[in-house]
Amino acid sequence: MRKTIIGATLLASLLLGGDYLGNYSSNPYGANSSSNKYGSGSRYRSNSINNSYGQYGSRYSNKSANNPYATNAPKLYDSQGNYRGKLSSNKYDPDSVSNPYGRYGSKYSPDSINNPYGAGSKYKNDSPNNPYGAGLKIYGQ
Residue 141: in which H helix or E strand, if any? Predict the structure, then answer.
């Protein structure tokens, strides 16, 4: 069973083209949740989006979710493998979840995590807004 899980994770990482960084989730108890300060959300973990000195959390790294000018930010995928945009604070990137006019950032788009009736519904298991859900998978490049 454990080999199957490890194999599936490695295969997904190769297919999606990046490092698995955890899940973008508001669930503070999920081991892979970015909100779990003892799990994937730890500010001491080298590939955490919450590590202000790491490549995925720094304000200066082009691969960071926290750099407002990053163009190579981590990507989000739902449980079905659908692309849900870049986890980025860049308001000008068309794929950024912070772009209020883009497909993945608009509160009116069904593909946006900012739409409480679409991908951002607090009742969907893979929504980052569900406090008990799994959230979206984060892959860094």
Answer: none
Structure tokens at 118: 């679409």
- State the CB neighbour count (10 A cutoff) for residue 82: 12
Residues in the chain: 141
- Predicted structure pTM score: 0.85
- pLDDT band of residue 13 (cuts 50, 70, 90) is very low
- Environment class of 113 (CB within 10 Å of its CB; exposed 0-12, middle 13-18, buried 19+): buried
- The span from the CA of 107 to the CA of 30, in Å, is 26
pLDDT value at residue 6 = 45
Q: What is the CA radius of gyration of the chain?
A: 14
Contact 81, 136 (CB under 8 A): no
